[in-house]
Specification:
The structure is a single chain. Helices cover 24% and strands 36% of the residues. The radius of gyration is 24 Å and the shape is globular.
Length: 312
């Protein structure tokens, strides 16, 4: 009596099963990604992270004997992925850093900790003991580390760990962890309610009497998404260095010219000047990194309060 279904040859069945098994890690990893990879980098390694006690460093690290120490770290229940990428020659890790930072800014991510250079600790400890990626062993003075968290539209909390480094051979690498926090996981500074603040976006500027802004299409598109909420305001905070022989007043005046130039550019782009809040800070607040040069504009978007918020 014939059977109601045709049989599958054993060899074919095994091949299909093997193909499905090989596809499962890539499908799982794809589900654990919320940030787009830096387009000018090549994926070197990828791993699934599934742990009830995944350690996330929230302070500089040091090695005492063979023991890893940090003033603050958290062990959290997470599901996610870790990705090692090599940056293409001629492209800098600062470019990759900005790429990921801008994506975090559009998600209103909270920066929980960051460090740069030697203040982070020894690169070989980050590479081998924290991340388990020997390829990340580079120069202590040329490394950056960041931990940020945000909540997506479905209410899922995400933690992003970003590390970039330059090796002795000048090759540059990115390590990116994208981690979903369990419902029970608790992390100070990562709250469920989304922030009304988005940014800042960093726009370097050059010149004195005539100001030139490092303004590109990608930054413009990010700001458009950030200001999509009706009645949101944009703070244009202008910073400047203090040149040799320059007075404080003159440095602030240069910053004010840069801020006004930025405001006119935004107005021409369709963002009404009535939504601008301009502050010329000049050199009176000192906080510079490779991503935050002395002469820069910081754009911070403030969403209006929701109904029922506030005192009234």
């Amino acid at each position: 009596m014939p059977t109601s279904c045709s049989s599958i040859p054993t060899s074919v069945g095994r091949a299909v099963t093997l193909a499905m098994i090989l596809l499962l890690p890539s499908l799982t990893l794809a589900q654990n990604q919320v940030l787009m990879d830096f387009p000018q980098a090549e994926l070197e390694d990828e791993r699934i992270i599934s742990s009830a006690f995944h350690q996330v460093m929230l302070s500089p690290i040091r090695e005492v004997g063979s023991e890893l120490r940090a003033e603050r770290s958290e062990r959290l229940a997470v599901e996610g992925s870790g990705r090692l990428l090599e940056i293409a020659p001629g492209i800098t890790r600062q470019d990759a850093w900005r790429w990921y930072l801008e994506q975090l800014q559009t998600r209103n991510a909270a920066i929980l900790f960051q460090c740069s250079g030697r203040e982070c600790g020894r690169s070989n400890v980050w590479a081998n003991q924290v991340f388990g990626q020997a390829m990340l062993y580079g120069r202590d003075a040329r490394q950056d580390y960041l931990v940020a968290g945000f909540e997506d539209r479905e209410g899922q909390r995400w933690l992003v760990v970003l590390y970039t480094v330059t090796r002795g051979n000048q090759r540059e690498y990115v390590w990116l962890e994208q981690l979903q926090l369990s419902d029970e996981a608790s992390l100070k500074g990562l709250l469920g309610k989304p922030s009304r603040l988005a940014g800042p976006l960093i726009v370097p500027w050059h010149g004195g009497i005539s100001v030139r802004l490092d303004w590109d299409g990608e930054t413009r598109r990010i700001l458009e998404r950030m200001t999509a909420v009706p009645d949101s305001r944009v703070v244009i905070a202008a910073f400047s260095g203090l040149e040799p022989g320059e007075t404080l007043e003159a440095a602030v005046e240069r910053a004010e010219r840069a801020a006004n130039t930025m405001s006119r550019l935004l107005a021409r782009s369709g963002l009404s000047s009535s939504r601008h809040i301009i502050h010329a800070i000049g050199p009176m607040v000192r906080f510079t990194t490779p991503e935050r040069p002395e002469n820069r504009i910081e754009l911070l978007v403030i969403a209006p309060p929701e109904e029922g918020d506030g005192d009234g």
